């Protein structure tokens, strides 16, 4: 239910919608423990859990009453101004916008709750397949609605910015690749139960074609957003997956056969995508768009963001306070209302300082390493494909986040947290299915 409702507009752009998503996440987390989950499943991702918890603790530290550095000077200036109006002075803190910091702490804990809940709840193959169906079905619905009600050359759907729709669809594209690769790994088994050659070909062709269309439709959605970074990330991540997927030890002896089959199938999906979206995304990808300030001014925003970080180098200006920190160093000739750094890592550096960036990097890299190592050891084909898909989702957002602020749109990190938990849950087999089998045998 959560991954289905997360991209709805109220969950992406309003404070009330963000609060609703947080309450939904915390309720899911609480209900998870009514089923007596096995916490041992969290053992391999304790570094990520500790890092995200550390980010929340950093936010709490930023809210502790104290006067330090530039933040103290800001509060003294505010006190002087308020005194002239007969208003009491605010309590000095590290965070220069405490309300925003508190909101970001709650969001971080909500993402952590979703990740843990997904790991503990998606413990059977049946549940994971249901999760995949809901996630990909939701993505397809958003693409169809966005394309049907487009109000310009680029689609944006439930998101204000088309680049963020592309970021959301990158998550679905990674899981769609996993579904497609799972079918490639199983194609011989699927055909083994059918004796006649014609029926065998028909069964293989139908199953693969449906998955090719699924992947191609989501890729076409990214193309219709005309997000240059989104298109580039989708291409690079897909090529990377095609290069490493056949290196799995289980299929190493036949890796060239699987590599060729995977390349041919994805090539067909890309062909379907090109026929669907035609030349517009390619033209925009190769050309500069003077109407897009974020595209032309990103280097300026990054340079000024570095200047803002120098004011708060260690602990940051306060989680969620980029707008206020940036405004203090914003040049007069930069006539834009700047709320985001157009770089997730740079934004975390400004608001969380060097400590916040280190914790965020550890959380991302630690989970990616855990997933890829588990994928390499996983012998079950379906689970190995899902582990690879979850890794690809993290990689896509990490790469896109270098030039975009996807993690500042709650629907995207919330969905990513669920997918990451889904991937780690796949590493622990089918405990519920096995328990059911043992009960039947008993």
Tally of alpha and pi helices: 19
Helix/strand/pairing category = mainly alpha
The end-to-end distance, rounded to whole angstroms, is 34 Å
Order of helical and strand elements: HHHHHHHHHHHHHHHHHHH
What do you see in this structure?
The protein is mostly helical. It has 19 helices and no strands. It has a domain at 2-33 and 97-301 and 382-428. 72% of the residues lie in helices and 0% in strands. Helix 4 runs antiparallel to helix 6 (98-121). The longest helix is centred in the C-terminal third of the chain and has 34 residues, at 344-377.
Main traits of this protein?
mainly alpha, 442 residues, 0% strand, 19 helices
Protein topology:
Elements: H1 2-5, H2 10-13, H3 15-32, H4 46-62, H5 69-84, H6 98-121, H7 125-148, H8 162-192, H9 197-225, H10 228-244, H11 255-277, H12 280-286, H13 293-296, H14 298-311, H15 322-327, H16 344-377, H17 381-400, H18 411-426, H19 431-441
């Amino acid at each position: 239910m959560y991954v289905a409702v997360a991209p709805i507009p109220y969950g992406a752009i309003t404070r009330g919608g963000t609060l609703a998503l947080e309450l939904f996440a915390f309720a899911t987390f609480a209900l998870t423990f009514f089923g007596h989950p096995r916490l041992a499943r969290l053992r391999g991702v304790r570094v990520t859990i500790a890092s995200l918890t550390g980010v929340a603790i950093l936010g709490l530290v930023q809210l502790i009453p104290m006067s330090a550095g530039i933040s103290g000077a800001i509060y003294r200036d505010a006190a002087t101004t308020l005194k002239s109006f007969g208003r009491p002075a605010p309590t000095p803190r590290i965070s220069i916008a405490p309300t925003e910091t508190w909101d970001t702490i709650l969001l971080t804990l909500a993402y952590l709750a979703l990740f843990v809940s997904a790991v503990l709840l998606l413990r059977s193959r049946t549940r994971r397949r249901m999760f995949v169906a809901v996630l990909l079905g939701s993505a397809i619905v958003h693409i169809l609605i966005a394309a049907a009600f487009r109000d310009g050359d680029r689609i944006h759907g439930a998101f204000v910015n088309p680049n963020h729709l592309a970021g959301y669809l990158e998550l679905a594209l990674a899981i769609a690749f996993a579904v497609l690769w799972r079918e490639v790994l199983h194609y011989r088994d699927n055909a083994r139960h059918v004796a006649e050659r014609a029926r065998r070909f028909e069964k293989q062709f139908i199953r693969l074609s449906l998955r090719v269309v699924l992947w191609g439709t989501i890729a076409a959605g990214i193309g219709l957003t005309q997000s240059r970074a989104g298109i580039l990330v989708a291409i690079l991540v897909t090529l990377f997956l095609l290069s490493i997927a056949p290196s799995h030890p289980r299929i190493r002896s036949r890796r060239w056969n699987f590599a060729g089959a995977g390349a041919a199938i994805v090539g067909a999906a890309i062909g379907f995508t090109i026929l669907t979206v035609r030349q517009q995304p390619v033209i925009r990808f190769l050309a500069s768009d003077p109407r897009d300030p974020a595209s032309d001014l990103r280097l300026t925003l990054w340079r000024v963001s570095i200047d803002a970080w120098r004011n708060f180098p260690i602990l940051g200006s306060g989680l969620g306070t980029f707008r206020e920190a940036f405004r203090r160093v914003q040049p007069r000739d930069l006539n834009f209302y700047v709320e985001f750094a157009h770089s997730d890592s740079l934004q975390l550096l400004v608001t969380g300082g060097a400590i916040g960036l280190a914790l965020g990097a550890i959380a991302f890299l630690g989970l990616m390493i855990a997933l890829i190592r588990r994928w390499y050891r996983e012998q079950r084909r379906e689970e190995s494909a899902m582990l690879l898909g979850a890794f690809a989702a993290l990689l896509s957002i990490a790469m896109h986040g270098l030039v975009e602020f996807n993690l500042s749109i709650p629907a995207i990190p919330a969905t990513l947290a669920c997918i990451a938990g889904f991937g780690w849950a796949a590493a622990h087999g089918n405990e519920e299915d096995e328990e059911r089998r043992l009960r039947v045998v008993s």
